[in-house]
Amino acid sequence: MALQTQTGVSKKVQNKALVASLIGSSIEWFDFFLYGTMASLVFNKLFFPSSDPTVGLLLSYLSFGLPFFIRPLGGVIFSHIGDKIGRKKTLVLTLSLMGGATVLIGLLPDYNAIGVWAPILLVLMRLIQGLGIGGEWGGALLLAVEYSSKGRRGFFGSIPQMGVTIGMLLGTLAISLMSALPDDQFMSWGWRIPFLLSAALVFVGLWIRNGIDETPAFQEAKATGNIAKVPIVDTFRYHWKAVLIAVGAKVVETAPFYIFSTFIIAYATNYLGYDRITALNAVTIATLVTTIAIPYMGMLSDKFGRKPLYIAGTVAMMLFAFPYFYMLSLKSALWLTVATVIGLGILWAPVTAVLGTMFSEIFSTNVRYTGVTVGYQLGAALAGGTAPLIATALLSTFNSWVPIALYIVISGVISLIAISATKETKDLNLDES
């Protein structure tokens, strides 16, 4: 007989839910980060041509950032479905939407072929991606957390966060392999291959997600009639403070992340003279390190609490902001890799590992999908999608990395203020939230 957890669910079913959460999240973020990397390598040249390379890059990053502002809309739509109908059905919809848009990006003709329709269609596909990812994260998180027992919520909640880095790792590896092609072949067709391959990944993800049941917490809420009529209204009426905390706490998790993972590629190659493969490899190594670190940080949060790990990671990133850019300025492949591993691989890990679990513990079951999603996506819109754009604009205006380092420090201050308004939640039952 299988061992039972505190949720009354077997270990086998728990593990299956974890795999479904991780794989789906990994696929979503593989698709999403492909665009982020290609924005600095390909789209600025093929879809946003300009006589001024900085203008082309800014337009490309603008197309990268726009979906962050549609993500809250996707979050509201799909979290409403998730809190009314269930987590599982919602996750199938978000994965299908995201995967379809990604494949179509790989098939789009460029500016030379269809003129202004190329960037228009690219942005449209990007917006559809934003809708999908807007509802994906909250569902993947709750699939893990609501299947967990109380003493392991930190670990379970960290697993979907691994999907972010695994997806990024797959994306950067795919692009690194394609970058081995001669430049003309990479720019002609090589960049399209990773987008097209996502079709197979989506098929696998849908197959796994269709094989799981609804989460125990939602089943219980449905059985007792504890379903919000309009989740978004109840969220802002009764949980507005928790939403503000989530938005503020998200800032330091997302802004430095896009500096360390996306902006760095363009900055290192276009401004510091590093070759593309060196920059991509540094990000890949750092991503591998943080993927391994995240579940360990989740387990530590079950022992020491969410807030201590979050605060430690935030303060460490603030202190590292200036040394990070100084190490890059040494123009050494070794120091570029070391700086990226420290920032993205080590210091960012405790913050992202506890974020989702902490969010899930401050909202009640009947609005949990909506609460965690709206808080997360609003924070991502304000601080995530704008980060590469702001960093590029600061660099162009001041011709110095110092303002970008200050930008990272300020993001940390905002999040520390937000987290100070919440209490430790690791010992709460989810139905006590």
Automatic annotation (TrEMBL):
Its biological purpose is as follows:
May be a proton symporter involved in the uptake of osmolytes such as proline and glycine betaine.
Organism of derivation = Brevibacillus fortis
Q: Which GO terms describe its cellular component?
A: plasma membrane
- Note the PROSITE patterns from the entry: MFS, SUGAR_TRANSPORT_1, SUGAR_TRANSPORT_2
Give the classification, highest ranks: Bacteria, Bacillati, Bacillota, Bacilli, Bacillales
Where does the record place it? Answer: Cell membrane
Q: What is this protein called?
A: Putative proline/betaine transporter
One example GO MF annotation? symporter activity
Q: What is its main location?
A: membrane
Membrane topology term reads: Multi-pass membrane protein
The protein's matches in InterPro entries, at most eight in alphabetical order, are given as: MFS, MFS_dom, MFS_sugar_transport-like, MFS_trans_sf, Sugar_transporter_CS
Q: Which family does it belong to?
A: Belongs to the major facilitator superfamily. Metabolite:H+ Symporter (MHS) family (TC 2.A.1.6) family.
Segments forming a coiled coil: none
Transmembrane stretches, by residue range?
A: 17-38, 58-78, 90-108, 114-143, 155-177, 189-208, 242-267, 279-297, 309-327, 333-359, 371-395, 401-419
